[in-house]
Amino acid sequence: MNLDKLKTVGLDQLAELQAISRQTFAETFADDNSAADLAEYLDKAYAGEKLTAELADDNSEFLFIEHNQQVAGYLKLNWNEAQTEVQGPDALEVERIYLLADYQRLGLGRQLLEYAFDRAEKLGKTRVWLGVWEHNQKALAFYQKLGFTAFSDHVFQLGEDAQRDILMEKTL
């Protein structure tokens, strides 16, 4: 029997968060980006000091999801001023949702998003939003299946490469 578990990530798990962040992002995007751009992004986005500050923010939350007692992925939520682009007081952002390749297609992503929807409601939010790379067809289809719709876009800088993210939202 598979027992999936969500666990809040604390500062004492910084090294594990950093490792899974780098691994899942690389697994997801390495084939479509230059090694130099990827390395620059990983070093900046997942630097220990940056993750430490994000973990300390009262308007953000990180969770690990475990599958068969192994960390399979993680989720990062932001609200209020912690949102990467403030979408108003009624919004909660899913900034990061990543699963290790071996744990995809097991329903774990859906569990993470269901947690995000519940968390948003507990915080009095009426919308959940996220950004997804325009070329990540698998993720776009997944979010659409869960009721997200596109509402805007923005530039996501990956090293020297300016990429387009589609902003999607779901009203609760």
UniProtKB/TrEMBL annotation:
Keywords: Acyltransferase, Transferase. Residues 1-172 form the N-acetyltransferase domain. One of its GO terms (molecular function) is acyltransferase activity, transferring groups other than amino-acyl groups. Pfam families: Acetyltransf_1. SUPFAM superfamilies: Acyl-CoA N-acyltransferases (Nat) (SSF55729). InterPro entries: Acyl_CoA_acyltransferase, GNAT_dom, N-term/lysine_N-AcTrnsfr. PANTHER family: N-ALPHA-ACETYLTRANSFERASE (PTHR42919), N-ALPHA-ACETYLTRANSFERASE 50 (PTHR42919:SF8). This is Putative N-acetyltransferase, GNAT family. It comes from Fructobacillus pseudoficulneus.
